[in-house]
Hints:
By secondary structure, the protein is an alpha/beta fold. It has one domain (about 5-169): Rossmann fold, CATH 3.40.50. It has helices spanning about 20-30, 35-45, 50-70, 85-90, 105-115, 120, 125-140, 155-169, and strands at about 5-10, 35, 75-80, 95-100, 145.
Amino acid sequence: MPKEKFIITFAGPVGCSKTPVAYYLSWKLGLPILNNDAMRTETVEDLGKFDEKEYLKRRDERIDELLKKGSSFIYDASIDRVWKDWKDRLLGKYEVFMISFDLSKGFIMELYAAKKYDESIRDVDKFIADHDKFLEEFADKVNLQITDENFKDRLRLSYEAAERWMRYN
């Protein structure tokens, strides 16, 4: 039986390919995307600087609007640090399909170098530690793991797993 209300979201360090997968899934599945980075950029552009409080206000308003509509959507963000809050908001209302990027530090460093994520390099250990802490507590919530070994197939694997889950799980 197909899912009625669901969210596709991600867990993983900064710069690990969440956005390309989100946009690919949006295109293949016809789902809207709520993009965390776009809301951050919007806040900076509107205010001339980043204001955490304003960003969180905008994010929460948009999330609440989607949840009230009962819309299924893709949340293009790393849910690692906010899952405890999210799971309470979603409990009993939405089903969640979570893709986890479980990449080695060496692989992440290669991605950062290729994408010129120079500022993220200094925080890579923190990003990995945050993700590992999330997995220690919530690994059972992950539907698909993307690793160094299957990374090049991440788009196809994500689509196939999400599509199968939406129809049958």
